[in-house]
Amino acid sequence: MNGPRRAAEFTVLALLALATLCAMGFIFVYAFFSPGGMPNALLGISLGLCLIFIASALLVVGKRLVPNDELEDDYPTEHPEKQAEVVEQLRTAGSLITRKRMLLGAGSIAGCALGAAALTPVLSLGPFWDTAALDRTPWKRGVRLVDETGHPLAAADILRETFYTAFPEGADPEDIGSPIVVLHLNAADLRMPPDRSGWTPRGIVAYSKICTHAGCAVALFRKPTFPTVEPQEALVCPCHYSTFDPFTGGTVTFGPAGRPLPQLPLQIDGAGHLRAAGNFSARVGPSWWNVREEPT
Fold first, then answer.
1. Is the Cβ–Cβ distance between 154 and 63 less than 8 Å?
2. Is residue 209, in this structure, part of any structural domain at all?
């Protein structure tokens, strides 16, 4: 019986080791991938495998290593000799596990690793996790705006009441900070914050295309069909109908979004092309990405 039980012990150790590696993998993925590129499927797989390996280890312990002897008779309360035999039987059965300390140590390590993996996302709610990557985007002063085909956008080609999607020239269009909405509005109607003077040459404005509610793409440009409830043009996210006012810096006028759309300052170069005059006015992405941002 020693051979099969030792094999079972090695199986338990291997399963606990795999569970520990999976839990550490979850922590690694969460720590070193940016939120925009977070492989959520990989997080779920690593955590799920960790739980499966721990459950399998417990199953092997219960089936192969835990004593399952049964007493057919009542416990002998009046015969000391019989009581001693029962105690010896239990002691002998309990000693069938030959690597108790190793198994307990492996179980403790796996449990701690699983606990650390479960607590890792909580750190996103506090000041201990680095979120500087959320502030970095492909946009900076001088970057030219291009369309989906990579063709530069000229200021003269931006028509009134038309919705344009633009990207930073030479950058990955799939980057969470890449896509922007470009509109040509009546410059006399703009009511931008005082610190954004000069951000809208010829009445052309640009905002992040990522909704600040849940990260969907702002893909609708609403024209004022019904003046009573729709007094002017607006940007609308089709997921939950968050509505943003492009005339006032992307402020929220309706829906669940918790903050304005980040605005990108623009400039026109000597060739008439649109270029970024800097980075966004705020972080790109859903509002919950900013819960640990220091107040200004």
1. no
2. yes
